[in-house]
């Protein structure tokens, strides 16, 4: 890939990342899950606590970004107190799962510490329960209510750790003796993985064809001799259509061979905790998408400068220190998401380059920003 093409791809990637979805890796896609289940059963069961497994398949509800519908199957067993034999419970679940705002913990948010990320959720749904107790079996309608958390610790394939507590209530037809209703409590832990092929596919990039070995520029009508067009300044544009001959090596040019100005890309929504360089939870979700875009940029001639900017409140020296710390915080986060450290640099500009009037709150908010600028080594 040529330098010019690499720059174009990098600019487009940065622009696309700025408008990406707020869903983090492994969240907001169809998924499969497998969990170990421990059950504290209703006292009327007169049995030991149960254990088993729970399998799930979930799909996002398209009109609601944080809502999934999930179908599950669980199978548990427990030993009876009276004779030590085994009872079984098998359940089909249909639940609605709502994911709340992302959270960070265990120091995540400090520069260079990007994980773990917590996605808390609540759920409610209906169930069809098969009880096989003391040789007698029956089917009951039930209902589930609970909550848990999906935890991103950087496992392969965007796999998440899932933890959950739920209560399962069911009407009883005396399959379990002693009560007309059964209330069991279940704790689960396992893994959840997005289904391959259902995520957002990267935009196709057209292959770049090598230039022809020789472009015929002049043909002598008498002798029939032909001369090749040349590229004297080596900028990739033949002299016959180069409107800016003598371009310095490494200069980014347009189709006419003239230098172009690259506009810095502002990644909207990258914010920090008040008066600090600690990234907010929503900012990290945005930077996750930015990291995925930047990982495809492997041209050694390119360098991404992460520029930190503040409003004009505070002293000049303080704003410069704060903007430098914030730019470095973003750089360390991207490095933690496997973007090459060699292609990232951080620089704090303080309040020296405002985009808007600092006399209004809206203007100050626009000036507090992080910019990504493509530079040449």
What's the short story on this structure?
Helices cover 15% and strands 38% of the residues.
Spatial order of the strands forming the largest sheet: 1-2-3-4-6-7-8-9
**Roughly what fraction of the amino acids lie in strands?**
35-45%
Q: Which second-level CATH architecture of the largest domain applies?
A: Beta Barrel
Report mean pLDDT, rounded to a whole number: 77
**Number of extended strands:** 15
- The helix count comes to 4
Number of domains in the coordinates? 2
Distance between the termini: 17 Å
Helix content range: 10-25%
CATH structural class of the largest domain:
Mainly Beta
Poorly predicted residue ranges: 1-5, 15-22, 106-114, 199-203
SSE class: alpha+beta
Instruction: Write down the overall geometry.
Output: elongated
Structural overview:
This protein is α+β, with helices and mostly antiparallel strands and 377 residues long. It has two domains: 3-19 and 262-376, OmpA-like domain (60s Ribosomal Protein L30, Chain: A, 2-Layer Sandwich), CATH 3.30.1330.60; 31-194, Beta Barrel (Porin). 15% of the residues lie in helices and 38% in strands. The protein contains four helices and 15 strands. The protein has helices spanning 3-18, 281-294, 316-336, 361-367, and strands at residues 31-40, 50-60, 67-79, 86-99, 103-104, 117-133, 136-152, 160-171, 181-194, 216-219, 226-228, 265-266, 302-309, 344-350, 369-376. The strands form three sheets. It has an eight-stranded antiparallel beta barrel. Strands 12-15-13-14 form a four-stranded mixed beta sheet. Helix 1 (3-18) packs antiparallel against helix 2 and helix 2 (281-294) packs across helix 3 (316-336). The chain is elongated. The protein starts with a helix and ends with a strand. Mean pLDDT is 77; it is low at 1-5, 15-22, 106-114 and 199-203.
